[in-house]
Design a protein that fits this description.
Elements (H helix, E strand, L loop, with lengths): L5 H16 L5 E3 L3 H8 L7 E3 L5 H6 L11 H9 L5 H5 L3 H8 L3 H7 L16 E12 L2 H22 L3 E10 L4 E7 L7 H12 L9 E11 L20
Parallel strand pairs: 1-2
Antiparallel strand pairs: 3-6, 4-5, 4-6
Length: about 250
């Protein structure tokens, strides 16, 4: 079917996910990948946020830099040591200051703080990873309920992988705690994951050292990557004609 606006498309995708899997899904709609991803985190586990052109910079600057995709815990800690806690703090720094402290990442950080991201969205790009995650209305505390959640997410991920014929060698577990601290742990195996049981076994091996948890888990995700025949490919800027109307 022909796609309409980006907002209508996101709404349709969320409806289909609920109808076909029974799961909720959040969505972010905006004029570039970076802001759309941030927007998708705003109303989890079952909402949609639209950030129109002209509003992106203001939206980004209200957020903690720990929300920025691409800024990991080590870089975030360094920024906080320099007095940068929010997008607004980051936007207050000029290119020279950023270059002095963050080297080659300066231009990228300068742009992120202003909501600028020229990467192109490509639906037919080679598959790099395939995953799923769930945000819980009530934080998970017991080992049993966390393991049950892991099994459920692994089932969803493997169903998607099987439909695509994807066989990966690296499994990544993502946990977000009640205080919004997020960790990821990965495990690679010699041969590609062949079935759902093997995916779950790898996930359980990663999870085991993290139990019991000291605080509740509000999000759990599993990603399968390092697929057979994978090749590196860069991003290019999007042409205006490739973009859907937001509304």
């Amino acid at each position: 079917a022909e796609l309409g606006s980006a907002t209508a498309t996101a709404r349709l995708i969320r409806q289909r996910i609920r109808a076909e899997t029974g799961l909720t899904a959040s969505a972010g709609v905006s004029y570039n990948k970076f802001i759309a991803k941030l927007a998708s985190d705003q109303n989890k586990p079952d909402g949609m946020t639209v950030i129109p052109p002209g509003k992106g910079a203001a939206f980004v600057q209200t957020l903690s830099i720990r929300r920025f995709h691409g800024i990991g815990p080590v870089t975030a800690a360094k920024m906080e040591g320099l007095g940068i806690f929010s997008g607004a703090d980051l936007a207050a720094q000029d290119r020279a200051w950023l270059a002095a402290h963050f080297g080659n990442s300066a231009e990228w950080l300068y742009n992120l703080a202003r909501g600028v991201d020229h990467r192109r969205v490509r639906s037919n790009r080679p598959l790099k990873s395939l995953g799923g995650e769930r945000t819980f209305f009530n934080d998970l505390v017991s080992d049993t309920e966390i393991r049950e959640a892991l099994a459920h997410v692994c089932t969803v991920v493997w169903d998607r992988a099987a439909k695509k014929g994807a066989r990966g060698r690296t499994v990544t577990l993502k946990l977000r705690y009640a205080d919004f601290r997020t960790i990821t742990r990965a495990k690679s195996v010699a041969a590609p994951i062949a079935d759902g049981a093997a995916l779950l076994a790898a996930g359980e091996a990663i999870l085991a050292p993290l139990l019991p948890v000291e605080q509740g888990i509000r999000l759990l995700g599993v990603t399968l990557s390092k697929f057979e025949g994978e090749e590196e490919e860069g991003d290019t800027a999007a042409a205006p004609a490739d973009l859907l109307s937001l509304l």
